[in-house]
Amino acid sequence: MSGINAFEHGGNLYAKMRETGGGFSEILDFSANINPLGISDKIRQTLHESLESIIHYPDAQGYALKNAINQHYRVDSASITIGNGAVELMYILCHMLAPKRVLVTAPTFSEYERAARASGANIEYFYLDERDSFEIDIEKLMKRFTDIDVIFICNPNNPTGTLLTNKQLEKLLEVAKIQNTYVVIDESFIDFLPNADTYTCRHLLTQYENLIILHSLTKFYAIPGLRLGFSLASPRITMMLHAGKDPWNVNTLAQNAGVIALSDNDYQQLSQDYVAEAKLELYNKLLTIKNLKPYLPSVNFILINIKETAMTAKQLRNVMEKHNILIRDCSNYPGLSSEYIRVAVKHKEQNRILIDTLKRLLGGI
Ligand SMILES: Cc1ncc(COP(=O)(O)O)c(C=O)c1O
């Protein structure tokens, strides 16, 4: 798949609303992986209270937000760059590093490839094997580092949900360091994991100058329309990112929302507990639908092989859309095909509607 379609994300919510003339509430969007609990009351209140302050420029230093990130994730403030979503930082990073050869796993989140291509890089794929449940074989991956300037690793990986422990990643960082390869680890879904400490590489930042961590705050805090993310890196890379970005890239509402969100332990715990339960419930119900092969989820989305249904992902997406349900057709992911879809884990009642609709279309087992 090439051209602009290669970078389409989930079902297009806005196009669907234009078509039906309806609003957000009439569409069940399983194509974007957003915390099903929605925005917290605290964020809502902060947004209201912050409205007056938008007559001023935002804090270009992001002082309070960096402090909040420093407190919550126990990282040095000097390693933080705040972004208008994690995706903005992917583009700035690629622009500033100007890599010639970039390695991405396939399948993975498409914006790594898009950002790298936009800065003139050639892309190489490390294909993951369905027969290994798309697990990343790090021994094989490390053998591909020669002459690679940057490798992107998504952990947990979107759309497969596979995970690498920080012990595995440290081995990889060691080899990459010798080969002068930057390792960009996208931990955007890591907050959903109750045992994130086993997987995060934050504590390795001081040891590996070739490590860059990306972290979206839009998934876990359900604010993709507000845009907020950050990166963690060595002081040298951090200075470079600051030199390459708009000084006011993160607006005041997003900065204030981030400060409140990161201190909201109740919401964080509730979200982890809810998603942990809902994802297993959804997974188990998907197993009861004829000819679907869901992959065991690690976080708030589930990859499903639909080959045995004899429908393509596009056909199933179109039929589901007629029921006002959007799912992710995965056929434009390098490394996947028209045999795969992905669904988000949403509220339990919404998940039941998804299951009932799929069951009516495909049958039970
Ligand atoms: C792995 C991954 N990283 C980052 C993003 C986007 O993050 P943001 O909304 O902060 O730009 C996504 C969105 O789907 C994603 O899947």
From TrEMBL:
Residues 26-357 form the Aminotransferase class I/classII large domain. GO terms for molecular function: pyridoxal phosphate binding; threonine-phosphate decarboxylase activity. It comes from the Bacteria. Keywords: Cobalamin biosynthesis, Lyase, Pyridoxal phosphate. Pathway: Cofactor biosynthesis; adenosylcobalamin biosynthesis. It holds the Pfam family Aminotran_1_2. It catalyses: O-phospho-L-threonine + H(+) = (R)-1-aminopropan-2-yl phosphate + CO2. Its EC number is 4.1.1.81. It is an enzyme of class 4 (lyase). Its cofactor is pyridoxal 5'-phosphate. The keyword Nucleus does not apply. InterPro entries: Aminotransferase_I/II_large, CobD, NHTrfase_class1_PyrdxlP-BS, PyrdxlP-dep_Trfase, PyrdxlP-dep_Trfase_major, PyrdxlP-dep_Trfase_small. GO terms for biological process: cobalamin biosynthetic process. SUPFAM superfamilies: PLP-dependent transferases. Decarboxylates L-threonine-O-3-phosphate to yield (R)-1-amino-2-propanol O-2-phosphate, the precursor for the linkage between the nucleotide loop and the corrin ring in cobalamin. This is threonine-phosphate decarboxylase. It comes from Pelosinus fermentans JBW45.
